[in-house]
Design brief:
CATH topology of the largest domain: Immunoglobulin-like
InterPro entries: Cadherin-domain_protein, Cadherin-like_dom, Cadherin-like_sf, Cadherin_CS
Mean pLDDT: 90
Strand order of the largest sheet: 2-9-8-5
Shape: flat
CATH superfamily of the largest domain: Cadherins
Domain Cadherin: 27-133, 134-235, 236-339, 340-446
GO biological process, one term: homophilic cell adhesion via plasma membrane adhesion molecules
Distance between the termini: 141 Å
Number of domains: 5
Number of strands: 38
Organism: Batrachuperus yenyuanensis (Yenyuan stream salamander)
Structural class: mainly beta
Subcellular location: Membrane
CATH class of the largest domain: Mainly Beta
Largest sheet: 4 strands, mixed
CATH architecture of the largest domain: Sandwich
């Protein structure tokens, strides 16, 4: 009741059940070990160990190797209980020098927790491979006049064991009864020894050995002694000159140049080679010294007017001789005359006297000789043109034949044809427009009908060449008409002052 207070005490035991809230923790941050490649299957070399702060089943840990792209785990296995790692396959240093294993520790909780760690395994090399020659048979030739120290050949061996590469030693086992040859024990170079006999046999068969200190391999060296190369090739001339028509088809025979060699056998056999790159791109030569075209050649190309071929004759012993062949391209009429302008326009007053020069038509031909000789003629549908105008067939100057009075405001339109000398003769035509004006119309008149100037190719830009003068009652403006060819200022190398000429 409210007047009496009663109480009692009791002890209560609270048992906490473990929850798997801790992952395994490895005892080391990393693990590393070293193994010999000679280790047998089942060799243990490292033990990984992890702890778990949980209790009961949550603290029981198992281990396994995790596979990765390198497949290194295939060479080992791990005891899932105690973490000891063993070899599962034979190891080979020559294939893999280091393994990186991923070990995973897993506790027994639900769900289980895991931790991973890398184990690095370095493999050490042992001498388990013999040295091997790069080839089992070496062939060499030497001259009967070879002196002491003359190089014969070089034998080479390799060893899969990297630690043995610098330990290789070469020696001659047999076939060197009179000590005519010696081998460098480190480099494998075979040369004529200081004990060389005055007369050598035609053939030697040496047995060569290489050793790494444990294993040994052998190879054969066949040495043929040949006659001496006493003479070099000789051309009849140092320089030759031949002509070749431009545009000749591919594989056209240009010439045949031969050299002689007084040696016999291999040393007297001569091969021919074009040595300069420019000629190599355009010609080729046979073993007999015949030279053929490799492409069509163009005389109008400045680089191909005269092509120099540097020809080398080489005998079987390596001795050489040289000569030069100048191939001169002869012209073929493969270019048409080309006018300096795309068309010609001029005005003339009607009261000019007969024989007055109206204008000059100019054309050029990239060919040479007769092929470049140009003659001019007028081609017109109107009889009036031929009655009143004529052209000098060689100079291209158009002059008046009759008085032009009464023809005011007429425009003569016709063609001038330029024809080369061929054969075959090639021609081209250009349009000409001549307007006839009344006498009272003022026309500018140049002080000279034609101007001829000569300048140096090294003249600085901006240099004044000449002054062109014209007379007129009206203000004048001078211009250079852009031509149709490089020679007629197509590329505008020259300019004229508009005001003063």
């Amino acid at each position: 009741d409210s007047l009496l207070v009663a109480k009692a005490e009791v002890f209560v035991d609270i048992i906490l059940e473990d929850v798997d809230d801790n992952p395994p923790v490895f005892m080391e941050e990393t693990y590393a070990s070293t193994l010999s490649e000679a280790s047998v299957i089942g060799t243990s070399f490292v033990q990984v160990s992890a702890t778990d702060a949980d209790a009961g089943m949550n603290s029981i840990i198992s281990y396994k190797l995790v596979e990765n792209d390198s497949r290194h785990s295939d060479y080992f296995y791990i005891d899932g209980t105690d973490g000891i790692i063993w070899t599962a396959r034979p190891l080979d240093y020559e294939n893999i020098q280091q393994y990186n294993l991923l070990v995973r520790a897993t506790d027994s909780g639900i769900p289980p927790q895991t931790s991973d760690i890398t184990v690095t395994v370095d493999i050490t090399d042992v001498n388990d491979n013999p040295p091997l020659f790069s080839q089992m048979l070496y062939d060499a030739k030497i001259s009967e006049l070879s002196i002491c120290g003359h190089f014969v050949t070089c034998v080479k061996a390799f060893d899969a064991n990297s630690s043995d590469v610098n330990k290789l030693e070469y020696s001659i086992l047999s076939g060197n009864q009179h000590s005519n040859f010696v081998i460098n024990s480190k480099t494998g170079v075979i040369s004529i020894s200081n004990l060389r006999r005055p007369i050598l046999k035609p053939f030697y068969n040496l047995s060569i050995s290489v050793s790494d200190g444990v294993f040994r391999s052998s190879a054969q060296v066949h040495i043929a002694v040949v006659g001496a190369n006493l003479y070099r090739p000789v051309f009849n001339q140092n320089e030759y000159e031949v002509e070749l028509a431009e545009n000749s088809p591919l594989h056209t025979l240009v010439t045949e140049i031969t050299a002689t060699d007084e040696d016999s056998g291999t040393y007297g056999q001569i091969t021919y080679h074009i040595v300069n790159d420019f000629a190599k791109d355009r010609f080729y030569t046979t073993e007999t010294g015949q030279i053929f075209t490799l492409e069509k050649l163009d005389r109008e190309n400045p680089n191909e007017k005269v092509i120099t071929i540097s020809l080398m004759a080489k005998d079987g012993g390596g001795k050489v001789a040289f000569c030069s062949i100048n191939v001169i391209l002869t012209d073929v009429n493969d270019n048409v005359p080309q006018f300096r302008a795309t068309d010609y326009k001029v005005s003339v007053v009607s009261d000019v006297p007969r024989g007055t020069s109206v204008m000059k038509i100019m054309a050029s031909d990239a060919d040479e000789g007769t092929n470049a000789d140009i003659t001019y003629s007028i081609e017109a549908d109107s009889e009036s043109v031929e009655e009143n105008l004529e052209i000098d067939r060689f100079s291209g100057v158009i002059t008046t034949k009759e008085s032009l009075i009464g023809l005011e405001d007429e425009i003569y339109t016709f063609f001038v044809k330029a024809r080369d000398g061929g054969p075959p003769r090639k021609e081209s035509a250009v349009s000409v427009f001549i307007k006839i004006l009344p006498p009272e119309v003022p026309l500018p008149k140049f002080s000279e009908p034609f101007y001829t100037l000569a300048i140096s190719e090294e003249i600085p830009i901006g240099t004044e060449i000449d002054v062109i003068r014209a007379e007129s009652t009206q203000p004048l403006e001078y211009t250079l008409v852009k031509g149709n060819t490089a020679e007629s200022n197509r590329d505008e190398f020259f300019v004229i002052d508009k005001q003063n000429g």
